[in-house]
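In keeping with the milestone schedule agreed at the kick-off meeting, the structural modelling team has produced records for the first pair of proteins. Each record is given below as a sequence line and a structure-token line. The laboratory manager (R.T.) confirmed that both were archived under the project's standard naming scheme.
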Amino acid sequence: MAFLQVDYKSKKLGRKAHFNVFLPMDVDPAKTGAPFRTLYLLHGIYGNSTSWVTSSCIQRYADDRNLCVVMPDGENGFYLDHPDYMNNFSHWIGEELVEATRAMLPLSPRWADTWIGGFSMGGYGALRTGLKYADTFGGIIAFSSALLLESLQNRTGTAGPMNEPYARAMFGDLDHLVGTELDPLQLARERVQSGKAFPRLYLSCGEQDFLLADNEKFHQALKDLGVEHAWRTTPRRAHLGLLGAGDSPCGAGLDAGGAGPCSPESGSAHSGFLKDIDGQSSFAPSFCGGAFLRPPKTCAFLVVRGFSQSIQLLALEAP
């Protein structure tokens, strides 16, 4: 597996754009069916193109399955277009990045082989970009997605990461977001009405996640539309991506052994995109106080299992 760090001049962003890539190596194309299937994997707020590299075991998962993973740097822009600032992240990822990576790397152009996924802000970005460019992406994986459009209508004040000035800078008029092209549900409606094939879709969220109600509502709306999709909730998991060290069960640090605040046995809270599998407690690295904390050994096995479950539910690989 090769790890590539790429900088190139992006027309959509009007500057050098950066992304990281895990690319399978030392494999027989006759056996793997190269060119490779591709997952464009989006980070959450406060993250960057290294978030999945340093804080998950996606490399091992990708290596086991001859999967190329492209991890772009989306800054804190919710993967939306802001032409006044040349921050056209939606056009960049949905169009230019796909074209650029296919030109640079041996990637499959097939719809069924091209997926997009993300966590939190990246979950929203994956849903919105994946549905906006549903002719490009054949699969969407959305973990603990920041589906906040309705709640933003009443957003006031300047406290917290989703304060009113920031929300307005990202989304514009907060009173007129639902039903627009910024609304993943509206894009889902339009895709259904078009009669075209709908991307395979996997959604998940922790039962203690503050985004659970928004994700459940989206899940139910998709059911009402007749959209087939996988939906999973994870017990005892909360959304840590926006918490500081004082609020997080990982804030006290990692115990060297035993059932500490971040050990699998403690039932520590997290984003909810990993699920108990085969009766074993799942655990993922947590974003606590500005730094990802990864306990040894427990992360590697269980993160891989979590991703494997997601892909299998999407029917993107043989069970």
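The second protein of the pair:
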Amino acid sequence: MALTSVVGAYAGWLLLFRRSTGPQVARLALVSSVFYFVALSVAMGLLLGAVEAGRALGQGLGGLIGMLFWWQYFDKSKRVAATFGVGAARTRPPVSHVVGVLAAVLLVTVGPVVVVSLSWPSSQGTWMRFSPEGGQFAALLPGEPTVSYESDADDPSVLITSAMVETSDGAAFLIAYFDFPSHYDLDEGAILGRAMDDRMAALNLQKGRRTLVEANGFYGVGSSGTSDSLALDGKVRLFLVGRRLYTVIALSPSPQSSVHSSAAQKFLASFAPYPE
């Protein structure tokens, strides 16, 4: 947007001081501003999906209507012709200038997104099997996860391990687990119920219906919901296997696309605990 703003400001300066090249540069600014929204819709499509791309394209169509109006104004306005001369008022910008500006707009708008898309994993990219040492589980993920460790806020002796992948199209896949201390009384129903309430609240997801879920012969509880404030759809599954509690979460932009829905299902269905 900065590039098109510079061209527009330059055009405004030329028009203000009645330079003969003013109308020509103004036309160039109009074309570049419309092309910016087209390029932005492509970038949004690559990074955030079709919904955001559609919004950007809608703004581009609005800009196109404005461009056509002002283009005709420069062509037919007697005031413009009297101020700049008929020839100057109707002169089109050289093709080389148009191509140069449009190429620059494309480079600064889409270029960074392409770099990010290539460096970040994608829900539609190549999935890998993830089975960390000591994790006692396996799952499919759309890229190498970032693994982190933190102590539980209520019991510092409990170490929570988390593995997460964030994708270029706005999805996230998380597996977290920890072991309850040996002195802890394990009431599976109470633990899963309380843990599900905590996870849903932490993600600001509206509470949905809870269901019985299965993974490699072990049963747990699952739920899903939408966060209006964060514009996210979330699916959460919890499994208590022995003394280990697994949290499996799939997040994607709301409303959820078929691509994100399929990726979330693939991830959740692949999770398989195998205690030693």
